[in-house]
Amino acid sequence: MDTIASLFSFITTPVSWVIVQFHTVYGKIFGPDTGWAWGLSIVSLVILIRICLIPLFVKQIKSTRAMQTLQPEMKKIQERYKNDKQRQSEEMMKLYKETGTNPLSSCLPILAQSPFFFALYHVLNGIATGDTIGVINESLLASARKAHIFGAPLAAKFKDGSATVQALGATVTDVRVVTAVMIILMSASQFYTQRQLMTKNVDTTVKTPFMQQQKMLMYVFPVMFAVFGINFPVGVLVYWLTTNVWTMGQQMYVIHNNPTPGSKAQAAYLERLTKHVTNHGKARKRSERTIIKAIVAKGRDRNEFERKFINGLNKAGLAAQADGTVIQSESQAAVQTEDGSPASAATPKRQQPKRQSKSQRQSGGPKAAGETEASEPTSLVKSDEPEDAKPAAKKQPGSASRSKAQSGQRKGPQRPKSPSKK
Question: For labelling, which of 175, 197, 210, 268 has a CA lying 20 to 30 Å from the CA of 135?
Answer without folding.
Answer: 175
